[in-house]
Amino acid sequence: MGAIVSAIGGAIEAIISAIASVLMIIVSTIVTIIVTIFDIIFDILCCRCFGGRKRRTGTHRFNFGGSGRGRGSRRGGMGAGTGATY
After folding, report:
1. What count of Cα atoms within 13 Å lies in the side-chain half-sphere of residue 68?
2. Separation CA 68–CA 62 (nearest Å)
3. Are 80 and 72 in contact (CB under 8 A)?
4. What pLDDT score does 86 carry?
5. Ranges of Gly residues compositional bias (predicted)?
6. Which of 36, 43, 46, 62 could bridge 55 with an S-S bond, Cβ 3.0-4.6 Å?
7. Intervals of the chain under pLDDT 50
């Protein structure tokens, strides 16, 4: 009799654990989307406030208003870290 009760208890625990896991995934996804939206909004605001320079406010890098060329292209193709000014 004890084994049956233990099996039923284990099944109930597994069901509750699965439901909790699904809820945690849903909440995590919603929070990630909200944080990403605010990150993009702050990047756009910083772009407008600071003249289109590359700013990093969150976890992503955006270059709004940039030329779209690779790194070091404003220095005549010499590459980053060569000490050239522009």
Report:
1. 0
2. 11
3. yes
4. 40
5. 65-86
6. 46
7. 62, 64, 73, 75, 86
pLDDT at res. 45: 83
> What does the block give as tokens for 26?
């849903």
Phi, psi torsion values for 33, nearest 5 degrees:
-65, -45
With 0-12 / 13-18 / 19 or more C-beta atoms within 10 angstroms meaning exposed / middle / buried, residue 24 is exposed
Q: Which amino acid is at 35?
A: V
DSSP the chain: -HHHHHHHHHHHHHHHHHHHHHHHHHHHHHHHHHHHHHHHHHHHHHHHHTTT-----SSS---TTS----TTGGGTT--TTS----
**pLDDT score at 63:** 52
CA separation for the pair 35, 20 (Å, rounded):
22
Residue 12 identity: I
**Residue 52, token pair as written in the block:** 């289109």
